[in-house]
Amino acid sequence: MGSAAAADATGASVDQLTETYQAHYRSLLRLAALLLDDLSSCEDVVQEAFIRVHAARRRVREPEKTLAYLRQTVVNLSRSTLRRRILGLRLLPKPMPDMASAEEGAYDALERDQLRTALRGLQRRQREVLVLRYYADLTEAQVAEVLGVSVGSVKAYGSRGLAALRILMEGSHD
Questions:
Q1: Is-contact 153 126, C-beta < 8 A?
Q2: Cβ count near 44 (within 10 Å)
Q3: Which of 62, 76, 94, 108 has its CA 20 to 30 A from that of 16?
Q4: From the CA atom positions of the chain, what is the Rg in Å?
Q5: Residues in domain RNA polymerase sigma factor 70 region 4 type (predicted)?
Q6: Where are the beta strands (DSSP E) in 3-160?
């Protein structure tokens, strides 16, 4: 017996694997396409399946089952590819939306308009304190200095202004 015949007796030959590759590449690619979502991944999986079966060809006890081994390898590699993708997606940080939806933008604009209207309904000093404190982000001492009043007055105007603002905003949602 020659070496080729000995290889046939101990497993699938390179020639048999090459013939199987040529005859069944497209059907294995279609199989991968049913399991995966992009052509390049399918091609990679089918190619890797042939490489693995080629490396293990001596263990294929029944050479006529080479195609079955290839199909099973394509399925297993496709599963592994999907598992890696899913794991990768789970590990990625959740992206923040680039921009608010039109509905959110409209709702935000409505709230801002309601807030402006409610602020106009406050006493002048209450409105000034709230705008300087929360919009301009000044400390109570800084607001007192800007308005020429005491820190205690800023606290009082701020407290009463917030209470009045809550009432006015709740009334605008009804």
A1: no
A2: 15
A3: 76
A4: 36
A5: 113-165
A6: none
- Tens of pLDDT, residues 2-35: 444 444 445 677 888 888 888 999 999 998 988 8
User: H/E/C letters for each residue in 140-152?
Assistant: HHHHHHHHCCCHH
Tokens matching residue 91 = 């590990």
Nearest CA to 24 out of 56, 64, 58, 67 is that of 67
What phi, psi does 38 have (nearest 5°)?
-135, 145
The backbone torsions φ and ψ at residue 123, rounded to the nearest 5 degrees and listed phi first, read -65, 155
- Please say whether the beta carbons of 147 and 128 come within 8 A: yes
The gap from C-alpha 12 to its chain's centroid, in whole angstroms, comes to 44
| Over residues 110-115, mean pLDDT | 81
Closest CA to 167 of 118, 117, 116, 108: 118
Both tokens assigned to 24: 């069944």
The DSSP symbol for 98 reads S
Q: What is the pTM of this model?
A: 0.48
State how far the Cα of 6 lies from the Cα of 46, in Å rounded to an integer.
28
Length of the chain as a residue count: 174
Tens of pLDDT, residues 52-88:
988 888 887 787 888 888 998 999 999 898 888 887 7
